Amino acid sequence: MSNVSPSDTYCSLLWKHICVRPGQKIAPCCRFRQEISPPAKAGPDGELDFNAPGLIEIRKKMLAGEPVSGCESCYSEEQSGNSSLRLSSNQKMASPIPRSPEASIKHVEYVELFIGSTCNLRCVTCSPTLSTQIFKDYETLGWDLPTNKVTPPSNLQFLEEADSVKQIKFVGGEPLIGKRHTQAVDILLKKDLRECDLIYYTNATVWPSESTQKLWKQARSVYLNLSIDSVGVENDYIRMNSDWTQVNNIVQDYARLSQRSKNLTLQISTTVSSLNLLSLQKIDQYSLRLKEHYPGAKINPPYFCYLTAPSFLAPHAGPSPYIQKALNQSNQGFSKEHFKILKQLENNFENRVGDESDDLLKYLAKLETIRGNSVAEVFPTLYNDCR
Predict the structure, then answer these.
(1) Where are the domains of the chain?
(2) Which of 73, 199, 258, 300 could join 31 in a cystine, given CB atoms 3.0 to 4.6 angstroms apart?
(3) Given a cut of 60, is residue 16 above it in pLDDT?
(4) Single pTM value for the model
């Protein structure tokens, strides 16, 4: 990232977007990696400080064309020749680069709201910060836990005042079972949402309440990102506590709802790790079959998110023979997102520090002592190549 200009590091999200994270921390976006020293926190009464010193410092660096620590996910995608959240956001918002590092909450158009860590799943790729179930697993195993109590935002008043908002994204935990989501729905039902899009990341194990469905009807559009990491027993292993039969049934119910609705769009959202690296084509095919079986339903191609932390679960951290199998797959029927992931995998594999297979197997072995499942049975290729 030498010879940079503001356009090389500038991200419009810092001026037009706010991400409310666990523990009432404020971050530039969902992908920002800055856990040790969060850039900002909500005030004592839950009010949001959109010009906290940490956010001002990040904006100053962007205006100076300097790379920002925490933005590595986007930088990695761009260095692989792919688009990124930064680039797509700049294109979407299409506004001149600001001159001042200060911003106003009144001008915020995009809100990402962590609705709570309450969750019913124990996903291998998740963390105790984002799942109450994973928190319990870490407790049982005696692993390090977050030092501060993880809490959702205590004050949602800014939703009442946010009249410029064009998009609200709900994340969890599982947002559809969080108490804060119910409160947010009650607030938003009183607002005019005809020019507002709602985005959800849900694990497809629960059905929305009647009030939530009423809210969805009032919005300009609703996008449901269904967090599914493979099909069948592979998905059940990665997303512990899920049952594929139940997940598949709910996904089909959503497809039927999309058929009846004018504004509901579905998309499978997959976290790509070493575990499912050879299973992405199954996701591609499942999404295509869903679209074929439910004509008229609005179903976008799958979205694949490349996992970067913990490092031993990253797609490029596994054994070389396993990664070569992924890179040498027949590409017939691959989605654009699949090609993008393979390109990123190839680039990261060439530049990786080393093989982290031992750490991966040790991590899974510990989890399996309290889960009763087996990576050797569900993902035998990965297991054998690691050994």
Answers:
(1) 6-107, 110-386
(2) 73
(3) yes
(4) 0.84
